[in-house]
Structure formats: C-alpha cells, structure tokens
Amino acid sequence: MSEARPLVSICMPAFNAGRWIAPALESALRQTYTEFELVLADNGSTDRTLEIARSFDDRRIRIETTTRTIGAVANHNRAIRLSRGAFVKLLHADDLLHPDCVEAMVALALSDEEIALVFSPREVLLEEGSDPEWAKRFARPHDRFRRLERVNEGRDLFRQLLAAGFEENWIGEPSAVLLRRRTLEQVGLFNERLFQIADLELWARIAYGHRLGFVDRNLSVYRHHEQSGTAQNARARRDWFDRMWLLEGLLRIPNLTEEDRSALRRLRRATLRRSLRAQAGRLVHRRWTPELPSYLAYRAGIGDQARLHEALDRTGAAEGQRVSPGR
Fold first, then answer.
1. Contact between residue 139 and residue 124 where contact means Cβ atoms under 8 Å apart
2. 122-126 and 8-14: which strand pairing?
3. Up-side HSE of residue 168: CA atoms within 13 Å toward CB?
4. CA 208, CA 206: separation in Å to the nearest integer?
5. Quick check: 196 and 239 in contact, CB under 8 A?
6. Class of residue 117 by CB neighbours under 10 A (exposed 0-12, middle 13-18, buried 19+)
7. Mean pLDDT for the chain overall
8. What local confidence, expressed as pLDDT, does residue 100 receive?
9. Residue 36 sits in the same domain as residue 173
C-alpha cells in the first residue's frame, strides 16, 4: 500500500483477544476491496493477542501498542485517531466481516456525499454458554425501524429511536457500521463517559444531521459470548447511568428543533427517576456510586460543592420514602 492516505481504514480495538483475533484479522484481509489500512490498537493485552497479530505478514496491518490500559471506549477513539482513511470501518477483535463488507459499504457511501454512516444486518454467532434468548431478541435490531431505504434521512431514524426511548440500538454494533471521517471531525468521537451504549449515542448524534445508508444483507458476524465487554458490563452493572449520559450528549447536538429538545428533556427526567430508583438502597445510606455526583456536577457546571451535596441529600431522603431501611 502506498504512503498516500488510504480511502478506508479498518480499525480494530483489541484487549486480550487472543482467542478470537486470528479469524477476525483473516476476515479483514480477505476483503474484496483490498486498498485499505488495518490499524490494530492493542490496549495493553497480557495474553497472546500481539503475538498472533504479529504473525500475519501483510503490509496493510499496522499494530499500535500501549503499556497503559485505558477504557474500552477510549481505545475505540484511539484506534480511530491512529488511522488515516477517509472512511472508518470498525471491527471488533472477536467479530468477523463478510468478504464483500467493505466493498458494499464504501460503494454506497460514495454514491451520496451526504451519507455519513452505512450499516447493515449481521449474523449472530453464539458461543457455548451464551443465552440463546439474546440471539432471538437481538438478531435483527434494524427491523424495529418503520421502514429502511438504501439511503435514509437520519433525522427521521433519530426520531424513531427517540420515540422508543433509545432503549435499544437498532443500527447495530460497531462491526456492522462504516463511518465517514469528515463527519466524525464534525460531531466528535465516542463519548467516553459511557460504558455500554457509546455506539448508539454516536450513531444518534451522526443521524440527526446526516443521511444514513443501509445495505440490506448480512455483511458481518457479531460474536456473542460471556467474556465480551458487553457481558462483563451487564454483570457488573457498570452501565446503570449510561442512558443519562446518552441523553446529555444528544441535548448538545447543534440545531435541535424545540420539539426534539423538549422530547429529549422529558425523556431525561423520566430516565433520571428510573435510574435513581435503581440505586435507591445506596441513596438511602448515602453510598452513591461516582456517576451520580459526577452527573450533578456536570448539570451544575461544576459549581458550588455544598449545593451538590444538598441535592444528593434531598435525593436520598426522597428515595428513602420508597424503600425499607437496610434494603
């Protein structure tokens, strides 16, 4: 590959992915569209991830390492920043691409300069021990949209997601998406406050002001297993405040209509009440997790600390009326 800027960058964030990374890399290197760079951003892996990746002799692969492990979302952003392509094709190190994935997505993106994101259905590969009900529920998330064309007005899709409360990611995981770098430079990268739904938040920010392309056939494979970041976040409940941060991010979209802003604010109020109820026991005993004071500081503009503690005390007292002591 020449030193000129490639049209496409396949960006692979990876951490301790030695069990899966070889098939993922092979699926990328077998693409029918061949002129790309593949940027592997290793996040301080301690297994054989780097050894396996370095065994591939292909000039298109560039391996970027670090000795300091950062958050998974931050490593996605690191992979994008390290890449150079006009289009960013994300690929998780435990997922797979169909051979014509990049070719089909890039062709659609090039057909319309206003397309900022291209997505497609994906297969679900359940590993042993995974919940089969998950695959039944999430096998075809895009079917929740009322109708999808090859080229869609993103704001219409955004409003459908808003009406559904942003409860699910109907567009899909990062491996099912191609992004235009110019758009990322306009709207920003993944929101590093989020654990679980940073992809949905970014897709929604992009959708509000751009067109979205849809290729109506499976172009990738999503591997569902109990060691994934998704499964680990769910077990640890790290994502309990994610939807609040998602809504705050969307409320910062430039040129929101008043109707959309009002709808987001109503959803924010309802989501905050639900989030606080989920943490009621902690609030009663003033053992709140860091997300809540961080959020109140954000809403207060990092202002008067005494005012923040008073707000927390009032919240705890109010929630205490809803739960029995010692719960």
1. yes
2. unpaired
3. 13
4. 6
5. yes
6. buried
7. 87
8. 98
9. yes
Quick one: which H or E segment has residue 259? helix 258-278
Query: Is there a contact between 248 and 198 (Cβ–Cβ < 8 Å)?
Result: no
Asked if 173 contacts 134 with a C-beta cutoff of 8 angstroms, the reply is no
Of 236, 252, 278, the last residue of a domain is 236
What are the pLDDT digits (tens) for 170-189?
999 999 999 999 999 999 99
Q: How far is CA 302 from the centre of its chain?
A: 27
Q: Which two tokens stand for residue 15?
A: 């951490």
- 290 Cβ neighbours under 8 A, 6+ residues apart: none
Place of tokens 């990062």: 174
Which portions of the chain are predicted below pLDDT 70? 1-3, 129-130, 134, 225-238, 279-289, 302-327
Please identify which residue in the block is written with the tokens 């670090």.
66
The set of residues, in sequence order, having a beta carbon less than 8 Å from that of 188 and lying 6+ positions away, is: 202, 205
Among 175, 203, 236, the domain boundary falls at: 236
The residue written with tokens 């005012």 in the block is 307
Predicted TM-score (pTM) of this structure: 0.85
Query: Would residue 3 count as lying in a domain?
Result: no
Strand partners, 178: 89, 118
CATH number at residue 23: 3.90.550.10
* Nearest-angstrom CA–CA distance, 38 and 90: 10
Q: Which domain range does residue 194 map to?
A: 8-236
In whole angstroms, give the CA distance from residue 10 to residue 22: 15
pLDDT in tens, 142-164: 999 999 999 999 999 999 999 99
Residues 217 and 299 in one domain: no
Residue 326 lies in a domain: no
Q: What is the C-alpha to C-alpha distance for residues 82 and 64, in angstroms, rounded to an integer? A: 8
The pLDDT tens digits for 191-236 are 999 999 999 999 999 999 999 999 999 999 999 866 555 545 444 4
